[in-house]
Amino acid sequence: MSMRKLPQAEISARPGLRTEVMPSALNRWNPEVHAAATEDTDNSISILDVIGQDFWGEGVTSKRIAAALRSIGKQDVVVNVNSPGGDYFEGLAIYNMLRDHPAKVTVKVLGIAASAASVIAMAGDEVQIARAGFLMIHNTWVVAMGDRHQLRDVADWLEPFDAMAVDIYAARTGIAPKDLGKMLDRETWIGGSDAVEQGFADSLLASDEVSTKAKNEMGRQVSAAHKLDALLARAGASRSERRELVAALKGGMPGAVPTGMQDAAVIAEVESLLASIRSI
Description:
By secondary structure, this protein is of the alpha/beta class. The chain folds into 2 domains: 18-211, 2-enoyl-CoA Hydratase, Chain A, domain 1, CATH 3.90.226.10; 218-279, no CATH class. Helix content is 45%, strand content 15%. Strands 3, 4, 5, 6, 7, 9 and 10 form a 7-stranded mixed beta sheet that branches. It has a two-stranded antiparallel sheet with strand order 1-8. The chain has a two-stranded antiparallel sheet with strand order 2-11. Strand 5, helix 4 and strand 6 (126-129) form a beta-alpha-beta unit. Helix 5 packs across helix 6 (177-185), helix 8 packs antiparallel against helix 9 and helix 8 (218-234) packs parallel to helix 10 (261-279). It is globular, with a radius of gyration of 19 Å. The N and C termini lie far apart (56 Å).
């Protein structure tokens, strides 16, 4: 059980409604940031991807974290985080698991812990963050379709989840809930030093604990695919349409997605194309 008095998160995902990764978080996420140690230790867990399983089978799920915690047992655990967020309800489930772990939980924010990942980070008994790292907090963000009555119903349904996030952040920081609510309303990015000063984290990580040396090309490929998916979602494409288009562009081959500077060029071209489509 957490050494801190952290609230239990209530989870009640709504069928047919899924939270999505925010484009602003994807744009800031560098998937090549990871722990400098060459290998995970027996009591460490890495959260270095989007939260929740996407349609490529990637992502960090509560099922995977539960299995890792069972393997670790009643030992202290270190959780390395560099994630743009994702499925908020999966994030709440992971937060609960870490909160309920019977030994000390140390969270290390290596790059960013945005959205759902920032909630997960709050479950640590001790939170450390890179000086160049960031937390990002905001109101629950979903992609929804329907008439005004359906959308109003979705907005009302989301309100308690925003209140829950405020409770979690307030329990760690001591910041007044009213002030936290305003921070969520405007999507707030909190740098490493500010995170420590405001109580979101306890200390800064040593610079030699973080590495940006690429392990392989897969991280950049996944990042580019997620960015394209986010752009298509903003343009109103359904999940099935997005899946088919991204799969076609990947060509079914691991090396088919451009990397490095080519990523930026591809994303820029897609943004331009979508802007043209929306103006028609």
